[in-house]
Design brief:
It is built from 2 helices and 2 strands, in the order E-E-H-H. By secondary structure, the chain is of the alpha+beta class. It starts with a strand and ends with a helix. A hairpin with a 4-residue loop joins strand 1 and strand 2.
């Protein structure tokens, strides 16, 4: 999943991130791949959006 945009909405005075659309939920994805350790979770879910900022 790629992060498409991030910023701050001046009207709402809130920060936001926009991610690409995926056809499944995180809950469904995690249930399909049980058990998931922290290392695998980080590599698959957390790291990709963080790396798209580079």
């Amino acid at each position: 999943m790629r992060m498409l945009e991030s910023g701050r909405d001046p009207v709402l005075e809130r920060y936001y991130i926009a991610l690409e659309w995926v056809e499944r939920s995180l809950k469904d994805d995690l249930q399909a791949r049980r058990p998931v350790g922290w290392d695998a979770y980080f590599e698959k879910i957390v790291s990709p959006p963080c790396n798209s900022q580079r």
